[in-house]
Amino acid sequence: MKLELRGITKTFGSLVANDHIDLTVEAGEIHCLLGENGAGKSTLMNVLYGLYQADGGEILLDDVVQHFAGPGDAMRAGIGMVHQHFMLIPVFTVAENVMLGHEQTRFGGRLDLSSARAKVREISDRFGFDVDPDARVEDLPVGAQQRVEIIKALSRDARVLVFDEPTAVLTPQETDELMAIMQQLKASGTSIVFITHKLREVREVADRITVIRLGKVVGEAAPTASNAELASLMVGRAVELTVQKELPTLGDQALVVEGLTVIDPTGQLVVNDVSFDVRHGEVLAVAGVQGNGQTELTEALLGLQPHVRGSIRLDGAELLGRSVRGILDAGVGFVPEDRKEDGLVGEFTIAENLMLDRADGPPFVRGGSVQQAALAEFAEQKVAEFDVRTPSIETKVGRLSGGNQQKVVLARELSRDLRLFVAAQPTRGVDVGSIEFIHKRIIETRDTGVPVIVVSTELDEVTALADRIMVMYRGKVVGIVPGDTSRDVLGLMMAGETASIEGAAA
């Protein structure tokens, strides 16, 4: 089925999310929609899927104009969507999830689960998915859950299939499996729209590439285009994609964590007897698929988790049991994984956000009053040093782009005298240009002798920054390996394989 979008425009108040976008996807083609987070890719696909109503433009399938009042209309027309965050009911079986919303009944109104099971088996056998229709979704690995989403779409005769950032929660091996599935779907005649911001995946699977920046189509490219060419299209300038770093000059042990255990509010063991150390002048990257205890680990280091056992010693001093303020005062800098919720106050100005860690005394507060001149001088200096793109230090931080918001967090944390720097998902939702800048500052911090912990689900980021890599799976440490360990080995470790650690270096 041929898909054509003509002049699609979608606004949210004064924000123009899609600005007269044209896109054509031929039958049996994998068309990649490339752009940074916030570029307008997902908005465009939500218009296609009927979740949003366009303010202008039209959708055509096989040259026939379509009018979708909602997702049901889009599905009936042959459009399916595999969302980044799976739309599955964990306690339902695969067959129950597949039939949800399209229930068939037998005599007496009983659900016809047998036909749903048969449909799952038929699609699973056709594409080699190996999915049990009677398995509960919550018991399946993430890669298998994604295959269930694909089966759902195909069971409704989807001939155009949209994948919205589909690899965000997958290991490298699961990503490779998904790429193979896309090729199978293409061979069967399915048209695929593949939304991503990961350049390596684009070049591996796409037939054609359309690049969106700030809601507009800024160019098309062939998969033979280099990463540098694609990156420059995405951000509008040349970008250095390789992290430049020398071999580390390691000092003594700085942070020593022993037997760290975290229990969440439901009583679940989310960090299980974790031990590791970080030396002065070293980057330890924590890798793993999202949800394997990394978030709780970083929160425990900062005193944000209430139920923690074990020991956390920084330069010989025990941090466990101290307040968050006490840990920050001990010289720990922290970039949280959700900057909007935990790193910034959106209605505060840039200047006000830059003093959040030091609002209880000099140099910014004396006698209970904010020293405006000192704060303004500091804020102007940091805005320039960290290249924060803003009309004024008095701009509310919530009005900045994601990359500029992250730079404000970095500026605040790296402007203190640090003895440890912890950065969780430091480049999540920022553009390629900001990633380049953030990576450079992390390495500069390491090179001053400060120990650094980087937690990231982006394997390219992990291998670019790390001197050593600690892989977590289901709350435990699978292993700690050198920073040049191969992606294949790291991917197996992220799936819980411990036998592959020996000889892990590439």
TrEMBL record:
Query: What Gene3D superfamilies does UniProt report for this protein, alphabetically?
Result: P-loop containing nucleotide triphosphate hydrolases
Q: Which UniProt keywords apply?
A: ATP-binding, Cell membrane, Membrane, Nucleotide-binding, Repeat, Translocase, Transport
Q: Where in the cell does this protein reside?
A: Cell membrane
One of its Pfam families is ABC_tran
Q: Name one GO cellular component term.
A: plasma membrane
Superkingdom is: Bacteria
Q: Where is the ABC transporter domain?
A: 3-239, 255-499
The UniProt entry lists membrane topology as:
Peripheral membrane protein
Molecular function per GO = ATP binding; ATP hydrolysis activity
Could you tell me which PANTHER family the record lists for this protein? CARBOHYDRATE TRANSPORT ATP-BINDING PROTEIN MG119-RELATED, GUANOSINE IMPORT ATP-BINDING PROTEIN NUPO
Instruction: Indicate what this protein is called per its UniProt record.
Output: ABC transporter ATP-binding protein
Species name: Microbacterium caowuchunii
